[in-house]
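Person: At home tonight, work slowly through the protein below, taking as long as you need, and write a paragraph about the fold.
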Amino acid sequence: MRDSTIYQPLDPNGGIRVLILEPDSDGAEIRCSLTHENLHNDVEYKALSYEWGSPKDSKMIKLNGESVSVTNNLWWALWHLRKHRRITRLWIDALCINQKDKYERGHQVSMMGSIYRNAEVICWLGRGNDNKQLDRAMRYLENTPDEVNPQELLYSWDIDNHSMPSSHQVSVDMASPRARNNHSSLSYHDPRQYSDRYQSGYSSNYPSILEISPNIEALCSLTYWRRTWIIQEVVLARRLMIWQGDVCIDEMKFFGLCKRVLLHSLTEQGVLMVEAFRILHLRRYGQSLTLMQLMEFSELSSCQDLRDRVYAMLGLASDGQQLIPDYTKSIEDVYKDVMLMHTLCTKRNNLRTVYFSQLVQRAFWPLSASIVEYYSETPGTETQRTDYQDYWGRLWYHKMSL
């Protein structure tokens, strides 16, 4: 691939590339082209949210006439999306950003907040053909009767003045053994109260909510939901559409039913999804989140570049405007930038600054000797961070004790 042929310089003042996906033509190879647009104009496109996957598992497409290697998951997303003729203009980070140009990459990442705010986001969960459990769950959600109002499920929090339960309450309560067996300890409405109403719209041969719950939970346990970037993509999107294979589901149907499952699920993915719902709710009512809060929410997430543990949050953070993504910098330099920004914003050194420093260190050096030493020498803790529920609970307990 000749980058100089495919990627021409972008306008530094709002310039982006939009991928034009050619429609399917009797199973022909996937063909795309790139066009330059500007976010200051009224640009129409859909942004693809997906899991990159391993570069070792790849396929070829044509991009601006050149053969380009893409990961298998992205190839299947393009293969399915090109069947829908209304989906022709896409923003895809791996293709619309010159990934080999670190300066362009940093500049485009700094614009991602605006990119997702202007877009309908397609959440691509994968092909799904080889997993009957996922297929069954998606078909169930797809066929949810219109009479059922999933929005009521999605926003059935026990709230006053549009405020969500505290992060500490969500994390610690859900992580505790007591909460696993006693749902009354949570501050949510019991989702089972909706079972009869939800089930009434289905025919007698349709699976009940209890029968389909393991399938729905499998959707929430996909590694897709553990991505660091998922928080920004879901929260900022103008609209969300959930895709798996050829099945497309509106966000209200998907998240409305998944919320019920998450209240019964205590996996790390379930915790992250609950936090995504909470951020989404807060953002809709104009409440801002700091970089520290966002990094707390995303601590159990994963990304290929550890610098994205910070950079992926800047489009949301109320105090992140002073940080400019720069992929030419080392992790150590990014750490210094983050702490300098935090110190300037807080204008004082206190226990929260120490806590934030530890939080960033855990994000950048998750397997550092100091962290392992802490867990090995502290009574009641474990050296391996595999019990995410227990770890999440300890983390929030530490936060609230400051």
User: Anything to note?
Assistant: Residues 3-100 form one domain. The chain has two domains: 3-100, 132-400. The radius of gyration is 22 Å.
